[in-house]
Amino acid sequence: MNQKKQPVTLFVYPSCFHYPPGMERVEIKTSQLLLASYLAKWYPVSYADFEISIGRPNTKIQIRRYKRKVTEYLEKQEFDILALSCWTSLSYQATLTVARICRELYPEKIIVVGGYHPSARPEEFITDDNTVDYVICGEGEKALREIIEQVKTAGKPTTTQIIRSQSLTAEEIIECNWNLVEQFVRQHFPDGLGNLYMYLSRGCPFSCSFCMEPLKDQHWRAFSPQQAIRHIKQVLNQFHPGAIALSDACFGMRPGWRKEFFRLLEEISPDCWLVFETRPEYLDKEDIKLLADLNVEVQFGIESCSDDMLRIMNKTRQPQKFLSRFLEVSRWLSEYGILHRANLIFNHPGETPKTLQETFTFMDNALQEQDSSLIWVSHGYMHFPGCEVDTNRQFYEQKYGSRFLAPEWWKGEDDQYHSSLKVIPSRELDGDKVTVWERMFAERQEAMKHALSPKARTFAARKYYPNWQHDSHHPQI
Ligand code: B12
Ligand code: SF4
Question: Which of the ligands is closest to the CA of residue 417?
């Protein structure tokens, strides 16, 4: 590195290997942009996303092409530090591949990896030849800055260093510098961005069994509502996205913050869709009134409607209270015609025919309500490293007879998305029974359609249930 020049950091999202085609791509990788924005206050940075610029390779031929393209790209770049975002485990193989290419091309450059997968399994980035210099666990900003500051004096470490980064305080969290991706957006999304994901807060005090969030700092830190609104206005002016998703791990936890934020949001009345996910405890009637005139979709991670499962998932210690609060909030939202979605996870370890029945009985009762704006969406349990279930696999195996059929799927060459779903939840739901929930959910489709208001039905058909669009019983879809 030229000693007089400031070190340049190239941020790269390496893409995913063996991911099923046709799955949606995230247009802008907000976490990576946040890190780049933080460092850009002191050092030159650049942003690249190989998922968008090269694609998601699946076959050997596609992976060869991917490697060639990455080599060509890196050969042309001027940088001193390569910061690789292994945000999810789906990017594990792509991350190591890019690191190896970079190491071959430039033995002296610094290679750093960070994100959820390195936070969960830092040791998986230690190789015989020390391909990676630093593995950062947790929020990456401070550690990255320190590494760059040391580069000038200390140079490259001789072995891979695993660093637990200190997290940012509420005063230190910064907004994205969207100018850093303006050229990227012009080049790859000339028709504009469909979805733009923003974070207004960090940290979640809960510890759900299937979630990796508890591995990070759980302390809730947020922009002031005024800052948050200023940020939203800026993004609206700069990109005119189709939707803004407020993707905080625990959106709107403090009532005072939330109310002020919604009040200001109502004032600016954004001309795009707004989506946020929260918990039923974090929305009351006053909040809902403030949302009534906005194009908003509220999502709830309900996960299960069985008391036992909610306890196993550590979603709540008071399942009955949690579920009745959800019904109450859902009714209020429907009264104001506000679209909202309940996300369910089926086949989490510990699920049995009894717990499935409990969830569907609860759903059947809720589906009695007419003119509702509540849309039910389901997914099978996906096993990701770093969460409580992963750490305590043996407990689930012994107590429920759960079986993890692809416990390290991110290292394999099979379709990774579907491999992550290969979990037998319990002795009672083994064999053919593993798909029972899918049939039970499908059987409720008609009731789901009937319960929805015309507006909610049309929305659900567009966004979640495209097969409803050809439904002759509901000509308004
Ligand atoms: C928002 C979110 C999304 C958004 C992403 C929006 C976007 N623009 O990126 C959407 C809805 C699109 C999404 C999709 C998916 N998600 Co998601 N998502 C989240 C969520 C809720 C919040 C993340 C957050 O708080 N970010 C705030 C920022 C500030 O923190 P951060 O992202 O952690 O970034 C910091 C550190 O990780 C680190 N870091 C990150 N990158 C790098 C890079 C370097 C070099 C360094 C040093 C540090 C570093 O520093 C960052 C800044 O402090 C989390 C957690 C949760 N509660 O569920 C799941 C989570 C990240 N998602 C997860 C998964 C699995 C998925 C999906 C695969 C789900 C699916 N069924 O398809 C897809 C994958 C999409 C893809 N291919 O990229 C998992 C990942 C687990 C794992 N081990 O891989 C999580 C952890 C949830 C879980 N199951 O525990 N997701
Ligand atoms: S699932 Fe949501 S509430 Fe639970 S720990 Fe993760 S972010 Fe928090």
Answer: 1
Q: Rounded to an integer, what distance in angstroms lies between the CA atom of residue 464 and that of residue 275?
A: 14
Q: Strand 81-85 vs strand 9-13: parallel, antiparallel, or unpaired?
A: parallel
Q: How far is the CA of 384 from the centre of ligand 1 (A)?
A: 12
Please give the pLDDT value at position 477. Answer: 44
Which of the following CATH numbers is that of domain 178-470: 3.80.30.20, 2.40.50.180, 3.30.360.20, 3.40.640.10? 3.80.30.20
Architecture of domain 9-164: 3-Layer(aba) Sandwich (3.40)
Amino acid identity of residue 451, one-letter, is A
In the chain, where are the structural domains located?
9-164, 178-470
Q: For helices 30-39 and 141-154, give the axis angle rounded to 10 degrees.
A: 50
CA–CA dist 210, 206 (Å, integer): 11
pLDDT at position 250 is: 96
How many other β-carbons are positioned within 10 Å of the β-carbon of residue 474?
Answer: 16
8 Å CB contact between 228 and 251: no
pTM of the model: 0.95
The bound ligand whose nearest atom lies closest to the alpha carbon of 207 is: 2
299 C-alpha vs ligand 1 centroid, how far in Å?
A: 17
Within the chain, which residues score under 50 in pLDDT?
A: 475-477
DSSP β-bridge partners for residue 297: 275, 339
Counting from 1 in the atom list of ligand 2, the atom nearest the Cα of 213 is 6
Cβ-based burial of 126 (10 A; exposed 0-12, middle 13-18, buried ≥19): middle
Atom of ligand 2 nearest to the CA of 250: 7
pLDDT of residue 474: 55
Tokens 């637990």, located at residue: 164
Cα-to-centroid distance, 235 and ligand 2 (Å): 26
- 3-class SS at 223? coil
State how beta strands 374-380 and 9-13 pair: unpaired
In angstroms, what is the span from residue 435 Cα to ligand 2's centroid?
25
pLDDT digit string, tens, across residues 388-424: 999 999 999 999 999 999 999 999 999 999 999 999 9
CA distance 430 to 401: 9
- CA distances to 43, 76, 404 from 281, in Å: 42, 51, 33
